[in-house]
From TrEMBL:
SMART domains given in the database record: GuKc (SM00072)
SUPFAM superfamilies tied to this protein: Galactose oxidase, central domain, P-loop containing nucleoside triphosphate hydrolases
Gene Ontology cellular component annotations, sorted alphabetically: cytosol
Catalytic activity: GMP + ATP = GDP + ADP
InterPro entries registered for this protein in UniProt: Gal_Oxase/kelch_b-propeller, GK/Ca_channel_bsu, Guanylate_kin-like_dom, Guanylate_kinase, Guanylate_kinase_CS, Kelch-typ_b-propeller, P-loop_NTPase
Pfam families: Guanylate_kin
Name of this chain's protein: guanylate kinase
CDD domains xref list: GMPK
Length: 383
């Protein structure tokens, strides 16, 4: 272990020396370009990058009141390290700017302590569709995605159930071993998960965020327990419960679909009763949709999503706004503005002003609502 490595419970000598001078905020440490310290209350958060782009940026905490190092379990997808990074405290989160990284990988938030990727702009609220097995959720979602392919994207869940004949891994589900999924649940990969009809199902944070990253509105097809968990999470969504016209009709649809064994059909029908009771009586759902006649139900669904009379346009070619972050930069903060400046000493400074006044969402996943302005001609800006 060299002097740049950090120990759990013991402060490396060079860090103690740096930290003795009092709280440092967002400054890179003397001994390494890939380490920053940010102080929040009693704790100094040290982000450590390996610099080779393969390992992730590590987080260590120096508890100043105890004089001890803490190595926390950090939730969320971790950013890979890079040529170096800067950090600045804003709105109780640490904004980390990665040097020399791709435009969709430059801005991260460390939400004391979970990582969430910083994204320019906002996304429309995801739509959670729930209801008993066989009611027609998948059918309605397919119709919506077929008519509005550029508007909606599907959240591909993980499941431990076996694939059906026509189902493709990565398209309908991520089919996963139980032991793998249990480990991933422990690692904080899932926004929600539940045991449904004897198998594990879960929505990963990434499944929802990749859809929004592609500029589409995300649709989740999940059971009532999952909807309840999402409702309790930081993800703001619209919740729709799909009801069958009768239990007889639900049974007919399940049987006619021909994808389940007799035992599974009976299990799903038993669970349906509890789901309908919960779905219709709880405060989880914003809308009830009775799926009797398919075409009529589809029209109602479009209406409640504000899509009635809406003509599907061809995809807009609005390119995402990207910051071209200078590799060598310094960071400072004035109120809700983060000033990123580059340019050699005595040369005119190139400035990017990152506006964090409208931050939305947060860990786990993405922090949206960032905006920026470029002040200075020589910075490339892809707009
Ligand atoms: N309004 C409807 N009238 C008649 N049949 C329907 C209607 N809606 C869907 N179906 C049929 O019912 C069956 C079940 O539909 P679907 O697979 O979409 O249900 P689901 O709610 O997604 O079920 P699961 O939760 O098990 O995935 C399918 O064969 C579908 O074609
Ligand atoms: N809580 C979650 N429920 C999910 C998820 N993905 C699907 N589901 C629900 O499971 C049942 C059965 O689905 P099937 O494909 O086996 O018929 C159904 O009610 C789905 O809505 C998930 O990620 N989380």
């Amino acid at each position: 272990m060299d002097q740049n490595d950090s120990y759990i419970g013991e402060a490396p000598a060079f860090l103690v020396e740096d930290l003795q001078d009092g709280p440092l905020n967002g400054l890179e440490l003397k001994n390494g370009t890939c380490k920053t310290t940010t102080t929040v209350g009693d704790k100094t958060y040290v982000t450590v990058g390996a610099g080779d782009g393969t390992l992730s940026i590590d987080v260590q905490i120096f508890d100043r009141s105890l004089g001890e190092w803490v190595h926390p379990t950090v939730l969320g997808t971790k950013p890979l390290s890079c040529k170096g990074h800067s950090a600045v405290l804003c709105k109780n989160r640490i904004l980390v700017l990665k040097k020399g990284s791709k435009s969709d990988d430059q801005i991260w938030f460390l939400e004391v302590v979970a990582w969430s990727k910083g994204v320019i702009g906002n996304a429309e609220k995801p739509i959670v569709i729930s209801g008993p097995s066989g009611v027609g959720k998948g059918t309605l979602i397919s119709m919506l995605m077929k008519e509005f392919p550029s508007m909606f994207g599907f959240s591909v869940s993980h499941t431990t159930r076996a694939p059906r004949n026509m189902e493709k891994d990565g398209v309908h589900y991520h089919f996963t071993e139980k032991s793998v999924m249990e480990k991933e649940i422990k690692n904080g990969k899932f926004l929600e998960f539940a045991s449904v009809h004897g198998n594990l199902y879960g929505t990963s944070v990434e499944a929802v965020e990749v859809v929004a990253d592609a500029g589409k509105r995300c649709i989740l097809d999940i059971d009532v327990q999952g909807a309840k968990s999402v409702r309790a999470s930081s993800l703001e969504a619209i919740f729709i419960f799909v009801c069958p016209p009768s239990m007889e009709e639900l049974e007919k649809r399940l049987r006619d679909r021909g994808t389940e064994t007799e035992e599974q059909i009976l299990k799903r029908l038993r669970n349906a009763k509890a789901e309908i009771e919960q779905g219709t009586s709880s405060n989880i759902f914003d809308f009830m949709l009775y799926n009797d006649k398919l075409e009529e139900s589809y029209e109602k669904l479009k209406k409640l999503l504000g899509l009635d009379g809406f003509v599907a346009a061809s995809p807009k070619s609005a390119a995402p706004r990207e910051i071209n972050l200078p590799v060598d930069h310094s960071v400072s903060k004035i109120d809700d503005k983060i000033i990123i400046s580059s340019g050699l000493e005595k040369e005119p400074k190139n400035l990017i002003m990152l506006d964090v006044s409208s931050l939305k969402g947060g860990a786990p996943g993405r922090t949206r609502g960032l905006d920026f302005q470029v002040i200075g001609a020589s910075l490339d800006l892809h707009c």
